[in-house]
Amino acid sequence: MTTYQNEIQQADSTLDRKGPSWGAINPEYVARMALQNRFKTGLDIAKYTAKIMREDMANYDKDAANYTQSLGCWHGFIGQQKMISIKKHFGTTRRRYLYLSGWMVAAMRSEFGPLPDQSMHEKTSVPALIEELYTFLKQADSRELQHLFKDLDTAREEGNEVKAKSVQEKIDAFETHVVPIIADIDAGFGNEEATYLLAKKMIEAGACCIQIENQVSDAKQCGHQDGKVTVPHEDFLAKINAVRYAFMELGVEEGVIVARTDSLGAGLTQKIPVSQEEGDLADQYNAYIDGEEVTSLAQMKSGDMLIKQGERVIKPIRLANGLVRFKENTGADRAVLDCITSLQNGADLLWIETEKPHIGQIAALVNRIREAVPNAKLVYNNSPSFNWTLNFRQQVFDAWLEEGRDLSQYQRNALMSSDYDQTDLSVEADNRIRRFQRDAAQQAGIFHHLITLPTYHTAALSTDNLAKDYFGEQGMLGYVLEVQRKEIRQGLACVKHQDMSGSNIGDDHKEYFSGANALKASGKDNTMNQFVVSS
């Protein structure tokens, strides 16, 4: 028996038990509403999507071609339209996720207004956005199923049993728009208890994957800005434990933790951890602290401190604000140690924040990590903070220079110029950008590629283009040419915005509740009938 028929039968059985007083309730309508609301709670979503992520991770271990992707979304509607588009173009949502960017929450969702990525926004705005994203994704399910139910009704009215059977098979095989969200918890918004409490709220809202970074919570900086301060391993591992406890308390045993290290670009630490014995984590962390070797107490001043590094005793270099400096050129070593330590203590995936998109650099780090943890995998930020065009043109320039090619027509520092757009070098650079995710998955252990804040930029770009045309000489044609006509011809369901916002779903419900007395919005005078697009 089909899923759809099972739902109808279950509803019919319940109504039979309740007797004639429930006689106005149609079991098929109950089945439709149940199928349109498959996920009753955020925990249902977290458990479902955690299983998807775990399966995807296992499939990547078997074949690196099975890498996954996501785009950062700052509003539920943006996430919804992204997943609708993916289903339209590729027929499935498999291996495509959503990313919840702390940067975009700070910049676009705070009651304080636009803020920098420094954990100053309300922590409650993070689980609120997770819940919002899933609300919109569930509504996308409802809308698509509503169209299928209408197709089924039409086929029945026409007496077309073949079409009715085909539509019912589509209903039974329906693939949800609900996909995993990798959710950014920043540095935990406080101590380990604060991290645990916020992680619980995020999981209850539907998050199956939480990304946490090793910066100091109250001095957190964007990963692509200066002034980053890391914490000792013990502090970070306590927060990883806090997130794991939250997952397990809520019954999401398959929940995924992404441990992010900012050590590659961080030159400071807030505190010097206490070492219990030589070679322990604290001692390894302290080995990277920069300082002046002390051979006499006469070198000490009031307030100075000493630490032992192997056979040497040093006076750590401290800034005026008390922060302690790391030795130069130790970022890569510290990042590798961070990653190994995190994976050996409960994390599932890694995030190494880099300063440029360079496969060789990433692979060198991952290969070192895999000497200790062979199945280490990365989540990688394909960041808009990188100048991708210039970076890859310079990478090609350097590679060709090493090969001894004639580069006299190029100026390395001016390669961003449009003058170079049609040159062989730029064509090769664009090809490398096109292959970057595939090649990095194969060569550098990247399981998941994401862009943190793409929809921030696309919203700004599309608005700029529309404003330029609409308020200029194009007038209304600016909107028609660049928006509506493209929506219609590209088959964007959103062109029928009343349908997208739930008007037709509401009409169905009115008919369920009121029968022939229902006052519906989708009659012949609804101007949305001017648009014909695929569902």
TrEMBL record:
Molecular-function GO terms, alphabetical: isocitrate lyase activity
Keywords: Lyase, Metal-binding
Gene3D superfamilies: Phosphoenolpyruvate-binding domains
SUPFAM superfamilies: Phosphoenolpyruvate/pyruvate domain (SSF51621)
Entry keyword annotation includes Metal-binding: yes
Catalytic reaction list: D-threo-isocitrate = glyoxylate + succinate
TM annotation in the entry: none
Top-level division of the source organism's lineage: Bacteria
Identification of the protein by name: Isocitrate lyase
Species this chain originates from: Marinomonas phaeophyticola
